[in-house]
Amino acid sequence: xxxELNSIERKFLEQLTVRKLVxxxxxxxxxVSGGPDSMALLHLLCAVRxxxxxxxxxxxxxxxxxxRESLFDEEHVRREAEKLGLACHVRCFDARKDxxxxxxxxxxxxxxxxxxxxxxxxxxxxxxxxxTGHHVSDNAETILFNLFRGTSIPGLRxxxxxxxxxxxxxxxxxxxxxxxxxxxxxxxxxxxxxNLGVEPDRNxxxxxxxxxxxxxxKNKLLPSLQRLSDQAGELEEFLELHFERLVQxxxxxxxxxxxxxxxxxxxxxxxxxxxxxxxxxxxxxxxPSSRILQQLVDLLQTQPGRKAHLSNGIEVVWKGKYLIxxxxxxxxxxxxxxxxxxxx
Length: 344
Hints:
This protein is of the alpha/beta class. The protein is built from 13 helices and 10 strands. It has helices at residues 7-18, 36-52, 68-84, 95-102, 106-125, 136-149, 175-184, 201-216, 221-249, 262-266, 270-283, 290-299, 330-339, and strands at residues 27-31, 55-62, 88-92, 129-131, 162-163, 166-167, 259-261, 307-309, 314-319, 322-327. Strands 3-2-1-4-6-5 form a 6-stranded mixed beta sheet, with helices on both faces. The protein has a 4-stranded antiparallel beta sheet with strand order 7-10-9-8, sandwiched between helices. Helix 3 (68-84) links the parallel strand 2 (55-62) and strand 3 (88-92).
C-alpha cells in the first residue's frame, strides 16, 4: 500500500495531473544538482510514483566549477539515488574551458551542455520527460531579468512548465514550501555558495530586488509575475495560431528563395511585420534583436535599393517587390555600409 501523502505532496500530485506533466506509466529523468530545489523535486516524484505508476531516474551534471565541492555534489547525488533505488546518470564537463572556446558565458555554456546531455539520455534510454527544479521564484527572476535586459512579449512568459521533453513540476510552488518540505522530510542537500552573493545579475535580482519589493508589497510580486507569465503564454499561443493563418492566406509572407514580399508586409500592422521578419531572420540563422527588427521595419518606410545589415554576415536589401536576404559581399561591404548607415 502506498503511504499517505502529506499536503505538499498532494498539491504536487494535483499539479502533475491537472497540467498533464507526467502521464501514467511514463519514465521521468530528474535533473538533480544536489541543491534543495532538485532534491525536493526528486523526493516529491518518488512520493507520488506509486500513484502515477511512473518510473524515476536521476541525471547529474558536474561542471567542475567549484573544485572539490563539485565532486562532493556528485557523490551526494549518487548516494541519494542509490538510497532511493534509482538509476543515476552522471556526466562531467569542463565548463570554464568550453566557455572560453565557445566565447560564451559560463552560465550559458553550462545550460547548453546540460540540455544536450538530457537529449542524449533521452535518445539512449527512451525517457519520456526530463524534470527540473525551477519554482515560482525562479520564474519571477527570469521575467525580471528579461525585462531589465529588454524583452518582447514572449520574454514575459518566463519559464515554461512544459516545453518539449522538459517539465518543471515545481513552477507554481514557492521557495518557502520547498524548504518546508525539505525540513519536514529531513532531506540532506548541498549548498552552492556561489548562489549566495549578489555579483551575477540573477543573484542580485534574487537577493536584493525581489526581497525589497516583497517587503513593500506583501505577497504581491510573485503571484503578479506568475499571472503575467501565464497571460503572456496564452497570448503567445494565440499569436502562433494567428501567424499560421496569415502565412496560409498569403504564402509570400514566408521566406521562400530568401525573399519576402514587400507589398504583403506593408498590408500588415507593425507588430505583424516584426513577427514575420523575426521568423525570417531565424530561418537565416540570425539572432532577431529588437534593434535589428526596428531597422527592418524602418527599411520598409524607405525605398527600393536600401538595405540593412544583420548578424552572421547576412544583409537584407529591398529589390523590386521583395526583401532579399543574402550574404554580404566583402568587396562591396564598405560602400554598402555608407549607403545604409542610417539604418544601422
